[in-house]
Amino acid sequence: VTDRLREADPAISISANPKLPSVKSYVTGEPVLVERIDERWYEQVTHDAVRLEALHHYRPRSVVSVPVVGRRGKLGSITFAHGESGRHYSPADLPVAIGLAQRAALALDNARLYDEAQGAIRLRDEFLSIASHELKTPLTSLKLHVQSLRRFLGAAGCSVITRASGPLRGSWDRLRLEQILTNLLTNAIRYASGQPIEVTMLERGGHAVLEVRDHGPGISAEDQERIFQRFERAGKNGVLGGLGLGLYIVRQIARAHGGDVRVESKLGAGASFVVELPGARVVAAPASERKLDAGKELYAG
Asked: With contact defined as beta carbons under 8 Å apart, do 2 and 81 qualify?
């Protein structure tokens, strides 16, 4: 019937008429049996002459519709019909129809799981190839990443403004701290939309506090924890990139140093990523503020 309608007018779609057995079965989650169909039934489930003509062409005389329900909920419905044969469905036919729908749901679920598994395997292989290179030559890789950041800044039209209360000292892994800053800057540039990025470093209560703020679209409250998980990205603003590991790595490094990272953000108001590490002490030096444009040094000497 669907093919007949589309042949008559490609712009026509099958509307969700609650009187149709297929729609009723999908909505209620229960089988729908129409043992005998007459002309009045056609008029009850059709809305125009084209649909009525299609039904008259096939002339279904008996219909049974059953829902297709998968592991994650409703997937659709299957409708069986008798036409010219003159046969009619009865309640005895329902178990067969339900069994076929269950097999269809299982096939659809398996196809979906296979597709998701293939995607996860591709992501894993890509991650392992990158991770293995970084583990072999982390310093070289980080320097290359810094160079990429400079190019990234230029392409995005962003500048970086840094503020520091003074030099801070502590017992930290310098390479990993640079990785934190690199990951946070990469994330900020991706969502900054050409606006300045602010980097602030200060001491508070014996903790070193690093804040990287962008003026992008912001992050909703329900996503603020999720983005720190593996292979997670915001991606709701049309912006995608990377493997979804940058913020996860930042959190792991911060916690390995006895600290942590959090995000402070509202939709439409940008985002601030704040890293706090214990064991900081201030080395006397004048306060500073400077603006770093694309191509200039990202790190103080």
From this structure: no
Say which DSSP state 86 is in: -
| pLDDT value at 15 more than 80 | no
Surface-to-core class of residue 125, CB atoms within 10 Å of its CB (0-12 exposed, 13-18 middle, 19+ buried): exposed
Two structure tokens written together for 32: 């729908």
Q: List strands edge to edge, sheet with 288-292.
A: 260-265, 271-278, 207-214, 197-204, 160-164, 288-292
Q: Report the chain's C-alpha Rg in angstroms.
A: 30
Residue 152 amino acid letter? F
- Residue that is written with structure tokens 């002339």 in the block: 59
- The three-class DSSP label of residue 275 is strand
Cα–Cα dist 59/205, whole Å: 81
Q: Where are the beta strands (DSSP E) in 83-196?
A: 160-164, 168-169
Question: Looking at 41-45, 138-142, 149-153, 288-292, which range is the least confident one?
Answer: 288-292
β-strand partners of 293: none
Number of Cβ within 10 Å of residue 210's Cβ equals 23
Mean of all residue pLDDT scores within the chain: 78
CA 230 to chain centre: 12
The C-alpha atoms of residue 277 and residue 273 are separated, in whole angstroms, by 13
Task: Render pLDDT for 133-164 as a digit per residue (tens, 0 to 9).
Answer: 455 545 555 566 667 777 878 888 888 899 88
